[in-house]
Task: structure prediction
Amino acid sequence: MATVTATRLRAAGLALWGLVLLRAFADGRLALLLRDVFHPLVNLAGMVLLMLAVGLLLPLGRQSATIGPARRRDWLTLAASTLIALLLVLLPPNPSFADLAQQRPVDDTADAELTFVLPPAQRSLTDWVRLLRNQADPRLFSGEPASISGFVLPREDGPPLLARLLVRCCLADATPVGLAVRWPSDRPLPKRDQWLQIEGVMAVQAAPQGEELVLVPRRIQPIQRPRRPLEP
Amino acid sequence: MVAPAWLPTAWALFQGLLIEAMPFLLIGVLISGLASWLAPGGQWLRKLPTHPLLGPLAGAGLGFALPACECGNVPVARRMLVAGAPLDGALGFLFAAPVLNPIVIASTWAAFPDQPWLLLARPLGAVVVAFSLCRLLALLPEEQLLQPDVLAERRLNQPLSAVTLLQRRGGLVGPEPASPAVASTRPPLLDVLHHSSGELLQLALLLVGGCALAAMVQTLLPRQWLLQLGGAPTGSILALMALSLVISVCSSVDAFLALSFAAQVTPGALLAFLLLGPVIDLKLVGLLGLLLRPKGLALASGGALLTVLLIGQWVNLWRL
Result:
């Protein structure tokens, strides 16, 4: 059997990492892990890694005599890289958004990022929260129609909120925003982490801090987690 | 066997941290490899100042020329160390460059446009931290500070006037060559690729360990607990320092994350968060362990914690 050079093993390792990044880009999991702006960077890194792997195998020039056959350390590195790559590919991420949200402080920066106001029916949950931060009087929005989606986030001091996670870089820095919902009294409360699409009208209700805007549902539809569940 | 309920969330956090960091690690290794190909022998690195004050400042200033976040600058700092650069210069770069680079300064400005003091205090604080760590780590002999493989390669590239023959385990014996022509021969591209790829694979595995640790701690330690400590001046600094260690987010975006809780914490705590994370966090421990021996790593971590705490206290005295 021909001796395997360390270069070939390293090429295999680079190719593995490149494929992991490209696979993450292709299978849509990046939408669950990173902010959109980083997706092309991951894709580019995957392609560069593959190109480097190919470059290592091509006779680009004279190779010095210092590069010899693969050593035990090279094999171990490749074995560990392969194991991690397999785990990453075979076990896609499936986080509990409610768990993540409950561990983190509520995002209070949304007011700084509001640039324009959409018509009520087109506002997302995050748009509503940002709008409320800018216009502290919830009565201004009472009676407006709303159609929003989010996951069910239980809270200790009241019925569950409908929530979204805002992300600046990756899931590690995600912070929640939530909107109160007047859940129908004739039905059980929805389960945590359940994604819902709710259509209804906004109303005002008493809250410990004064008054708060609450969504009164006309129609509640369970939905799959959206393809892009994180919001910037 | 049923997996713990927290495991899927920790696994997703791990993937998020790892996949976000890999491109930056690649950028760092590419910069390091390109530098070794374009400037073989690293002669210019050896010309960095050795002065106790100018050395760290020069290294820190290189961050503007080699913009990389804290994952990416580890391979670049390693390259500086093995090329024989003065220790202060390489460590100054390692500890300050993740903040002193255009991307991080721009992101800090974008996140806090209404707090100009922070735009000044963050780079200044990073220089103070880097300078303090350089002086602190200079107390250790290089044999106790640097990993053996880094040290061995470094000795080969240091001038004989700086290293005794006993400290070198190979290389030239006798008077130093008059001309650096041999040392500056450009290595074959394949050699550079070979070494850079080995370095990248090694760093990637260390990064995996760091991300796994950070993801697990983040999942098991609710962030609210830390922020609830954040009311008191000192308590808030300590809480935010602990948070930056745990979150392990890239320095190019940590200002946006800090924005989400800036209103709940003291100004000193906010600055402490922005200063400590780029120097040391759970994700970085493995990567820094490639350069520094455990004693050096412990000293650097302790020194960084203390310096950042003092800076935070001073800022609270000034701003509160």
Notes: Chain A touches chain B through 62 residues (CB under 8 Å). The beta strands of chain A are 145-155, 158-166, 175-181, 195-207, 210-222, 230-231. The mean pLDDT of chain A is 85.
